[in-house]
TrEMBL record:
<dbReference type="InterPro" id="IPR036135">
    <property type="entry name" value="MoeA_linker/N_sf"/>
</dbReference>
<feature type="domain" description="MoaB/Mog">
    <location>
        <begin position="174"/>
        <end position="311"/>
    </location>
</feature>
<comment type="similarity">
    <text>Belongs to the MoeA family.</text>
</comment>
<keyword id="KW-0460">Magnesium</keyword>
<dbReference type="GO" id="GO:0006777">
    <property type="term" value="P:Mo-molybdopterin cofactor biosynthetic process"/>
</dbReference>
<dbReference type="GO" id="GO:0046872">
    <property type="term" value="F:metal ion binding"/>
</dbReference>
<dbReference type="InterPro" id="IPR001453">
    <property type="entry name" value="MoaB/Mog_dom"/>
</dbReference>
<comment type="function">
    <text>Catalyzes the insertion of molybdate into adenylated molybdopterin with the concomitant release of AMP.</text>
</comment>
<dbReference type="GO" id="GO:0061599">
    <property type="term" value="F:molybdopterin molybdotransferase activity"/>
</dbReference>
<dbReference type="GO" id="GO:0005829">
    <property type="term" value="C:cytosol"/>
</dbReference>
<protein>
    <recommendedName>
        <fullName>Molybdopterin molybdenumtransferase</fullName>
        <ecNumber>2.10.1.1</ecNumber>
    </recommendedName>
</protein>
<keyword id="KW-0501">Molybdenum cofactor biosynthesis</keyword>
<dbReference type="InterPro" id="IPR005110">
    <property type="entry name" value="MoeA_linker/N"/>
</dbReference>
<keyword id="KW-0808">Transferase</keyword>
<dbReference type="Pfam" id="PF03453">
    <property type="entry name" value="MoeA_N"/>
</dbReference>
<dbReference type="InterPro" id="IPR036688">
    <property type="entry name" value="MoeA_C_domain_IV_sf"/>
</dbReference>
<dbReference type="InterPro" id="IPR036425">
    <property type="entry name" value="MoaB/Mog-like_dom_sf"/>
</dbReference>
Length: 395
């Protein structure tokens, strides 16, 4: 591990080995968090008709101010039965069709409703009328290919009349945990054993990132067990292992993967935690060897596996999505590696401030759990002062 890749180079190498998964048709309601494979077009004008933005009276601006005859009442979904003539007004609800002949809506609060007539003040032409097609016109692209279907985007497509979308298939990810010392709660620990935490963490993080996760199991540091489990894991789109990627005699993952035909693309990244991360490919399967220390595993997953899942689904912006924040405490930089520091974020007048939590060692998952932000301290000289702008990922 003499010359380590920078995190940026590591991510670039990973993304360059990704082959986007084939797409399939998906019901819109089931497409949340997935990535659009083709542009989605509006099937209607939106709004589909000139609609009222207020509860009030529809009229012609040229007739105001004055007293107008009320010749109808329009509700949302119940349009007027005839056009509006000069000198007339119609009661109208928010979302109602502005009747033909009307061009303006006066809100209830500034009109005097006298039942058969209404007194209205001066108005500006077009006030409170939402233009037909003002949001989008029928046939236009509402969302481009490569966009993730956030709740806002799902709503936008539903409003456009779209019921099915084309999305990349959900990536299948196999998670394999290695380590003879690992037990699952509530089993009792024997001398030298600890509770396994990376498997559940990875399943949660990868499910949140849109993967279908298959827990291949927990294997001890034994080559035969490794071989059988890794061979199964290699059937998935992505294999993520935890532990066994360092230099010790019981670190078997890379060796067994090589025997099973995995081409190692790199091993080792100039970052802390997570330095001994390994990445390889076999066919189209991406193979991530995350270090066993729990915080190292978490950081490796967020920085490299999650973007790879986005890239597999054809996301236009698969890369890191660091948000800007201000350091609340000075942090020393390392000359050659990036540090990823766990911090607590607080929103204040100056923006988001980030306070590193106490206990930054890579086995301290409980200390990390007090944090909600992963702060990048870029390699370089000296220290970052209080108030320095840094990038962070929400945890
Ligand atoms: N001589 C060297 N030793 C180590 C180096 C090194 O460069 N030279 N690197 C250290 C770093 S950095 C890390 S990170 C770890 C990574 O080691 P492995 O990926 O081989 O992980 P393990 O040895 O299997 O485990 C490390 C640590 O984490 C605990 N662990 C493992 N899996 C889990 C799990 N699923 N849940 C909870 N805890 C887990 C394990 O018990 C160990 O304590 O190597 C350093 N060593
Ligand atoms: O990176 Mo190890 O990931 O420093 O504990």
């Amino acid at each position: 591990m003499s010359s380590l890749l920078t995190p940026e180079d590591a991510l670039e190498r990973i993304v360059s080995r990704v082959r986007v998964l084939p797409s399939e048709q998906v019901q819109l309601a089931a497409a949340a968090n997935r990535v659009l494979a083709e542009p989605a077009r509006a099937l209607v004008d939106l709004p589909p008709f000139p609609s009222s933005a207020m509860d009030g009276f529809a009229l012609r601006a040229a007739d105001a101010p004055g007293v107008l005859a009320v010749v109808g009442r329009v509700a949302a979904g119940r349009p007027a039965e005839r056009p509006l003539a000069p000198g007339e007004a119609m009661g109208i609800s928010t979302g109602g069709v502005v009747p033909e002949g009307a061009d303006t809506v006066v809100p209830l609060e500034i009109a005097v409703d006298r039942g058969d007539s209404v007194e209205v003040p001066d108005v500006s032409y077009g006030d409170n009328v939402r233009r037909r097609g003002g949001d989008i016109a029928c046939g236009e692209v509402a969302l481009a290919a490569g966009l993730e279907l956030t709740p806002t985007r799902i709503a936008a497509l539903a409003a456009c009349g779209v019921s099915r979308v084309s999305c990349a298939r959900v990536p299948r990810v196999a998670v394999l945990v290695t380590g003879t010392e690992l037990r699952t709660p509530p089993d009792e620990l024997r001398e030298g054993e600890i509770y396994e935490s990376n498997g559940v963490m990875l399943e949660a993080a990868l499910t949140r990132a849109g993967a279908a996760v298959d827990r291949v199991g927990v294997v001890s540091d034994d080559a035969v067990e490794h071989r059988e489990a890794i061979a199964r894991g290699l059937e998935a789109d992505v294999l993520v292992t935890s532990g066994g990627v360092s230099v010790g005699p019981h670190d078997l993952v890379r060796k067994v993967e090589a025997e099973l035909g995995v081409e190692e693309v790199f091993w080792g990244i100039a970052m802390r935690p997570g330095k001994p991360l390994a990445f390889g490919v076999r066919g189209d399967t991406l193979v991530f060897g995350l270090p066993g220390n729990p915080v190292s595993s978490l950081v490796g997953c967020l920085l490299f596996v999650v973007p790879a899942l986005r890239a597999l689904q054809g996301a236009a912006d698969a890369g890191w999505r660091f948000l800007p924040g201000l350091l609340a405490a000075p942090l020393r930089r390392n000359a050659v590696r990036d540090d990823f520091v766990r911090a607590r974020s607080v929103w204040g007048a100056a923006g988001v401030t980030l306070s590193p939590v106490s206990g930054q060692e890579s086995h301290m998952i409980v200390r990390a759990a007090a944090a909600d932000a992963l702060v990048r301290v870029p390699r370089g000289e000296g220290e970052l002062p209080v108030g320095a702008t840094v990038g962070y990922l929400p945890l």
